[in-house]
Amino acid sequence: MTDSIPTGFAPWRPSSPFMAHLADLGELYMREADSVLALRLGQAHTNMHSIAHGGLLATLADSALGHAIAHRAQASIVTVQMSVEYLNPVKPGDWLEAHVQIDKQGRRLIYATCLLQVEGRVMLKANAVFAVRAAPAPASDG
Question: Can you spell out the DSSP letters for 5-30?
Answer without folding.
Answer: PPTT-EE---SSHHHHHHHTTS-EEE
